[in-house]
Amino acid sequence: MISQLQRRSMVVKRLKVFQIESIVRGYITGSAWSSYQENGTVCGRGLPPGLQESEKLQQPLWTPCTKAEVGGKDENISPAEAARIVGQAYADQIEQLSLELYKEANTYAAERAAAFGVLKDWLVKNGMKGKEMVEMPDDVALKSIDRYKRAYRSIVGKGWDAAEEAAA
């Protein structure tokens, strides 16, 4: 019986999904770059002046966003706004888990992609199991080609798309 279930079954957990998502950014690119150009901040957090597009950040940055309805657009929010939506205790746990996951995934990418492997950013969807426990759904770790990019010396100041075109 067990042999019939192997590779055909999965463990399913019911989670209450939080109404925020987390993006951990290792590089100043995309909507973070746009925000930084406008006011020197990303999700309400000030960054050093003089950063160039796609430059590596000194530390990964947790950037929560709203969870839009299907077809809608998520909006970046500050950590304080995330705490208002889900509560400070949950926001703190979500931030910590998201940063830990990003760091592990970035190390994994770097070890397997020679010297050029980097993790640009990482989307984390969070759920809650029980009353106190924040849990990451299993699909959070699925490989997403959009999140993995090859880095080249010429990338800083040009954006990720320019590096991909140069590599083609």
TrEMBL record:
GO terms for biological process: 'de novo' IMP biosynthetic process. The keyword Ligase applies. One of its GO terms (cellular component) is cytoplasm. The keyword Repeat does not apply. Its EC number is 6.3.2.6. Keywords: ATP-binding, Ligase, Nucleotide-binding, Purine biosynthesis. Gene3D superfamilies: ATP-grasp fold, B domain (3.30.470.20). Pathway: Purine metabolism; IMP biosynthesis via de novo pathway; 5-amino-1-(5-phospho-D-ribosyl)imidazole-4-carboxamide from 5-amino-1-(5-phospho-D-ribosyl)imidazole-4-carboxylate: step 1/2. Residues 2-112 form the SAICAR synthetase/ADE2 N-terminal domain. It comes from the Eukaryota. This is Phosphoribosylaminoimidazole-succinocarboxamide synthase.
